[in-house]
Predict the structure of DUF378 domain-containing protein.
Amino acid sequence: MATTNTHTTERRTGLTAVDWIAMVLVIVGGINWGLVGLLSFDLVAAIFGEMSVLSRIVYTLVGLSAVWMIFTCTKMSKTT
């Protein structure tokens, strides 16, 4: 029975591809909020336009990723 790299990575780290994508988006969101707090600079708005459709999609994906990471963290805490 052949396994793909995704399954090998999941067994090794306990994270799926979706978990990794969510983690990256949460990190992007955290960096963006850090820039907003420190410099009053919204990187997402600067790239995609203030409250444009694309920036709203990014904000939504970051928010959903944060919720996803709650479940991922609980999954990770049960495996250790």
